[in-house]
Amino acid sequence: MPPLSLYIHIPWCIQKCPYCDFNSHAVQQQPVPEQAYIQALLADLEQDLPKIWGRKIISIFIGGGTPSLFSPDNIEHLLTELRARLNILPQAEITLEANVGTVDNEYIQGFRQAGITRLSLGVQSFDDHQLKILGRIHNRDQAMTALSLAQQHFEQFNIDLMFGLPQQDVEMAMQDLQTALQFQPPHLSWYQLTLEPNTWFYHHPPEVPTDDETWDIQRTGQKWLAQQGYENYEISAYAQKKQQCQHNLNYWQFGDYIGIGAGAHGKITDAAQNTITRMSKQRHPQIYLDTAHTPEVIVQQQQLSHDDIYLEFVLNALRLKHGFTVQDFEMNTRLSFEAITAPIEQARRQNWLIQHDNHIYPTQLGQQFLNDVLALFMPD
Fold first, then answer.
1. Which of 34, 87, 229, 350 is the most buried (most CB within 10 A)?
2. Which structural domain range is residue 348 located in?
3. Of 249, 269, 289, which residue constitutes the final position of a domain?
4. How many domains does the chain have?
5. Is 305 within a domain?
6. What pLDDT was estimated at residue 28?
7. pLDDT for residue 368 is more than 90
8. Of the candidates 249, 282, 305, which is a domain's last residue?
9. Statement to judge: residues 39 and 155 lie in one domain
10. Shared-domain flag, residues 91 and 195
11. CA distance readout (Å), 368 to 58, 235, 267
12. Taking a C-beta distance cutoff of 8 angstroms, is the pair 6, 258 a contact?
């Protein structure tokens, strides 16, 4: 069986950022219903338990939205209830996403005491002007304070940082990177601003760098990060030695995961039936709260076809610098490697992929044109 993780979605934010296409909802004036939502999460989980009896949880990721709107006491209560229902490995990585504008010393220390082992801090930029454009609720000083506290209380923490911001050049992007690395984060998520559909920026696009300018930023930053000892192990993920995010690695390596919470997705392998099923939960927070105790909380459930399976495997695995092996493909998809030999050969001729013995991985050119590589694997 593939490794199994748990994803928990908390859908509320102080305000919706103009670039965000995640299932997040601005808190109006009423307080977030923390305890009611935790009870809904547990009811949701209990309906999924028969699908994963006896399996061990290797990681938990509490994402959003802004999970740090929940108090440390309530996060501790949630983790306690999860341990009563799930076989969570003692060394499991437990990540909580936090907005640096919503945390202080009491909260950060409280999350650590609650059982969070890894904090992921959404900074995006250290430039106050850019933070205003991005709709962030924090400023540079708040980000610096939160990162200092994370450094004190957590051995494992991540900084989320963007590049390709409006009117940003290489020097400005490098200033952000250099500021982030002052805190020696074990992990850095450094990713390009994209104008996703259904966002404010998509309908009111800011003036962002050209593709060539963005590539210059990315290439310069990647070279400097490598010099600082950070491995670019996935397209936008950089880690010090042995500090890769285990939860996200499980996604990219086509592992299984339960998804609970408003809009959460899951992927479960049934070894007895030799099937892989994806499911998603109600997106709107109030509808989720109303249906979490019933089967109606699941809005979509689909058994993947062979084409779906190999395409999803490749789509994820080729994000990783080290790619995948023939054995990885056959074990996780339960398909023959022959299903993808033709598109791999096409990509090799384009110098997008390398196949060395049983190991397939992208070239630097392939990473740059990953969407074109993936298009080769699309079913006719």
1. 34
2. 318-375
3. 249
4. 2
5. no
6. 74
7. no
8. 249
9. yes
10. yes
11. 31, 9, 28
12. yes
What 182-186 contacts at long range (C-beta under 8 Å, 24+ apart), as own/partner pairs, is 183/147, 183/148, 183/150, 183/151, 183/159, 184/151, 185/147, 185/157, 185/158, 185/159, 186/155, 186/156, 186/157, 186/158, 186/239, 186/240, 186/243
The tokens describing 144, both together, are 């610096």
Average pLDDT over the chain, rounded to whole?
A: 95
Residue type, 107: Y
Mean of pLDDT values over 158-181: 98
Give 114-159 pLDDT, tens digit per residue.
Answer: 999 999 999 999 999 999 999 999 999 999 999 999 999 999 999 9
Q: What whole-number distance in Å separates Cα of residue 83 and Cα of residue 63?
A: 18
Torsion sign (Cα): 280, 283, 285, 291: negative
Q: What is the CATH number of the domain that holds 362?
A: 1.10.10
pTM: 0.95
Q: For residues 235 and 324, state if they share a domain.
A: no
Say whether 266 sits in a helix, a strand or coil. Answer: strand
Q: Is the confidence at residue 376, as pLDDT, over 80?
A: yes
What Rg, from alpha-carbon coordinates, does the chain have?
21
| 328 and 224, same domain (yes or no) | no
Q: Which residues, other chains included, contact 277 with Cβ-Cβ below 8 Å and sequence gap of 6+?
A: 267, 268, 270, 301, 302, 303, 304
Beta-carbon contacts of residue 324 (< 8 Å; ≥ 6 apart):
253, 313, 317, 318, 359, 360, 361
Residue 29 confidence (pLDDT): 65
